[in-house]
Amino acid sequence: MTERNSSTMKWAVIGGIVLAVVIAAALLWKQRGSEGPEDADEEVAQTVDPAEALRRKRALRSSADGLDFEAPASIGGRVTRADDGEGIEGAVVLLSRKGVFRGQAPEAGEPSQPLMVVTDANGGWQLDAVLPGRYLLSATADGFLPGQRADVQVFGPKAKDAARTFDLALRAGGNPISGTISDIDGGPIEGVLVQIQEAGGANFGFRQVPLAVISDEEGRYSVSVANGRYAMSTLHADYVGDVRLTEVLDAARTEDFRLVPGGTIEGVVLARAEGAEGGKPVAGARVTFADSRMGGMGGFTTNISLDGSVVVTDDAGRFRLRGLRSGVVKISAAAAGYATTSPVEVAVGIGEPVSGVELWVDRAYTLSGFVVPDGDPEGAIEGVLVGAWQLQPPALLVATAPTSSDGYFEILGVPTGTFQVGAVGEENLLTLTGATAVVQDSDITDLLIELDTGVRIRGRVEPPRQARIALRPNPEEASLGNLGGMMADGMAWAIADENGEFELGPLTPGGGLSGGRPLTLTAESDDGYKGELEVKLGGEDLEGVTVAMEKGATVAGTVLDSTGAPQAGVTVSVTPADPEGPGDIQMNFGGPETGAAPTGEDGRYSVRGLDPGKHLVIVKDSKGRAMSWAPGAGPEPKGSGEDEEVQPLELNIEDTVNDTFLELRVSPRDGLIEGQVVDADGVPVPDAFVTAALDVSSDAFMAAMRPGQEETETVEGVTPEKERADRRDWTQSAYFAEPPVLTDENGFFVITELRRDRAYNLVAEGERGGARATQDGVSPGVGVGTRVTLTLETLGGLDGKVLAKGKAVPKYTVALSGSVSRTTRVNDPSGEFSFDRLDPGKYEIVVTADGGSATTLVELGESSRERVELQLDAWGSLEGELINAADGEALRGMAVLMTTESNASRGQGGMGLLTGQGPKTGYDGRFVIDEVPPGKGTLTFMDPDIDLGSAAAVAVVDFELEPGETLDLGTVKGTQTESVPRDERGDLGMRVTTATWDERPRPPGTDLEASDEEPDPEPAEPGKPAPVRLWVRSIDVGGAAEDAGVVPGDEVLTIDGESVASLGAGTAAQKLSNSRVRAGQSVRLELRRDGERLDLSVKARAKDEKKGAAEAAPEGEQG
């Protein structure tokens, strides 16, 4: 059996880690705790007692002088024309508080609304009752570039000499983003607020100023903007909000919206009263929601609503949520002293009002404190976002508001457990581990989080022009020890002004004897100029740098389909065929893609700033998926079905002086799928959502991200498959689906503008999220749509109970994973849990509690409901000693990553590794890991200072643990060798795996059902687990290993004479990593095959070496 090796990316390990950290940056405000050299500030003796400083801060807040911290004030100003100072009537002014929350509520119990006002005839505006804090201010008017300010600070009414007037001057120009907003019946919607915000960069709501425009009585809107990539969203109380990305480059852009009526939920928050049936209403509770726009995602607890709105209950505990998408809406509440244990699920129809919902809250706690400058506990930092997070169960609970002027924050409704408290400020470095809060049975009010200001780079670009400034992380320096700094570098960006001047920061300081850490400063402009500069960043600001820019080449043209129709809103990507260097880490954070440009309404594009040489061209749709070439317009694709991969066009750019014109032809987007949705009795179902998702695999999607990368054909061993939960490919998530359509009164639907060359997977959902139908592989028709009938089936459910020694477990967390993922905390004396509205398929259930864990696999049939009982197994522990196999010395400070087959983790997994909160080896090399679930697992030891791109661990050891057992792993041998430089690395053309005899890979063609399998030559001792050994999993066709005679299924006994059994199979595998082998190096392997031993020598090949060019021959065999 041969198949394409889909995991050959040499950056697989670091890419996965970077992706995890990027997600953490968006949700957890990424930054691991520093364990580097001592700060220079530590040399200054601290003269202020932090506890005394906290006492004084709290005393001030409770005094009359502190009452002005939250008192609202009125502000206003004028919007004028920059050329003559005349006022602009009808301009839309938007005031946005810096951070993650949207606006202010008009009254208690109602959703917060953006602070927006339209200017009068003189261009004047005023907003009343604005809460103190830092804000972003914008004004838009048709035909003018937006006016923007990021320096607005509102003080309480008692503040003396505080600015209350904020003016904006608008200049004519820009390119319009315009469109029409209609409802599902096609009628125009007036009064829709369209918010537009630059999408590039990770700013956490601090820097990119949102813009606003309002649709008129015909549903039309228009706003002029500068070139850039933008996130757009709609807001109307009666409709479900819509979001999308768009890009503008020297041309107008049309973005039409079709909105669905939103549902409403009204209810009350009640505190559960012990010893009584009723409960008291809870005033001031924050009610948050997540609806079906999440696309079935779950398992992450947060107090941030999907749309960023905030609803705070009134004095009677009442609330109202608006603009909800039909289906299941999950509602949570948090207040001082209370919180919902798990979200309450409410079914909502299209535009349906639901009332009488009761949200019962249980005892919870408050975390509060102050954010201060590093080393200055008496100081204060205003406007900081603070959040408490934990790994298991995954949760992020953010503060009720950015820190006030005295640095105060509070986080309400925190359950018991251990939380890390992180913070991110506008002018400070992020910290994910600013404080640790162990919540048991009381509030914690003494948290003090210190933030560092970091350092800045200031300079200019030449020739002077507006340009985007960024830092390119150095992959050679990517290690666990400096990952936080590297991520901060990747997130930093700035815009050089018209004079070319810029300030970039805050950045993590460098240092050391070398004079600082090396960085690459990059600059790119819209008109195709670019440049870069190598700098060294030390412990002080870097001043006066100059980045020289040169004009790059331009590729321009038109994208048409095979009928000649212009293709608007697609992206043309032009990337080097042979990029120089080891492969930089790309951290774009939503900004414009380098070497790419969008098409305008006429299909025209212009990709600028390119280098001469051979390039690869591909066209992508709005979701980043490669579009197929029209017949004869490009290379034939590889593969078929969901694995079909579009191959890029080759283009040679001669110079940077003459533009290259290139007309591109793609397959039309004129396909149709139509049909009817019916229930189980065949009755048509009106108002059902139907979505279509392109039938494309994740491998095919990623191929468009790296066009032209040669795929290596491999020969794979036959490995026994383990029973696992059904997982949905992420390319089928809600983000990648086409906009949903609704069935009419007869259940009919039509989906248009589909790609005629590819199949789609259809999903219909009705009965307020309680029934679903799916049909995969539907090919659109042209002219006449492909007709299908989708029959809704009622979704199933799971009920369960968790026991320990025969008694119900009252408190635990249960995680469900399969085609959907959900996590819930249970606080019920009965020990019962339930999950509703589940698709058929296999699900894994993982329970974790203080007393242990439990895992099981359950299969749901159509419309079925299953019940399970899980018995907790007590946590175990692991201990041992890590030494260097070469000299026997202890390996200290190594990070330990634990993975288990049961997936029951308490923070020893990937996020613990990334944040520095996971286990490590001690000074003597010893390690202890508690709360380990029973069953099989693996420990991976990693050097925090080693290049992550090496993908090599110091040691890997497998284990098998009994419930409650303390297992001594003894002495674990590690290989702490230096990685081979990237340009000198070799490839053995083989991949190995660790497995027991029963789980090992077999030679290609093996029938696993055969009964004549040979016995294990080294069986386990009675009563002991089977030993884990090293096996060849796959080889490259025509590669070094195949030429040497290696076959999948071979057992590796020794490597260069060193026994695998002595070293440990996991650690031995690292010796065969590409990062440990030099090109031209011969590796001697002793293998076992069919009971026979043989010695082979495999000579590693250089990356670009042709097949068969290297010598690799058997050196002999022995019986």
TrEMBL record:
<keyword id="KW-0732">Signal</keyword>
<protein>
    <recommendedName>
        <fullName>PDZ domain-containing protein</fullName>
    </recommendedName>
</protein>
<keyword id="KW-0812">Transmembrane</keyword>
<dbReference type="Pfam" id="PF13180">
    <property type="entry name" value="PDZ_2"/>
</dbReference>
<dbReference type="InterPro" id="IPR036034">
    <property type="entry name" value="PDZ_sf"/>
</dbReference>
<dbReference type="InterPro" id="IPR008969">
    <property type="entry name" value="CarboxyPept-like_regulatory"/>
</dbReference>
<dbReference type="Pfam" id="PF13620">
    <property type="entry name" value="CarboxypepD_reg"/>
</dbReference>
<feature type="compositionally biased region" description="Low complexity">
    <location>
        <begin position="1110"/>
        <end position="1119"/>
    </location>
</feature>
<dbReference type="GO" id="GO:0030246">
    <property type="term" value="F:carbohydrate binding"/>
</dbReference>
<keyword id="KW-1133">Transmembrane helix</keyword>
<feature type="region of interest" description="Disordered">
    <location>
        <begin position="1098"/>
        <end position="1119"/>
    </location>
</feature>
<dbReference type="InterPro" id="IPR013784">
    <property type="entry name" value="Carb-bd-like_fold"/>
</dbReference>
<feature type="compositionally biased region" description="Acidic residues">
    <location>
        <begin position="1009"/>
        <end position="1019"/>
    </location>
</feature>
<dbReference type="InterPro" id="IPR013783">
    <property type="entry name" value="Ig-like_fold"/>
</dbReference>
<feature type="region of interest" description="Disordered">
    <location>
        <begin position="969"/>
        <end position="1029"/>
    </location>
</feature>
<dbReference type="InterPro" id="IPR001478">
    <property type="entry name" value="PDZ"/>
</dbReference>
<feature type="transmembrane region" description="Helical">
    <location>
        <begin position="12"/>
        <end position="29"/>
    </location>
</feature>
<dbReference type="InterPro" id="IPR051417">
    <property type="entry name" value="SDr/BOS_complex"/>
</dbReference>
<feature type="domain" description="PDZ">
    <location>
        <begin position="977"/>
        <end position="1091"/>
    </location>
</feature>
<keyword id="KW-0472">Membrane</keyword>
<feature type="compositionally biased region" description="Basic and acidic residues">
    <location>
        <begin position="1098"/>
        <end position="1109"/>
    </location>
</feature>
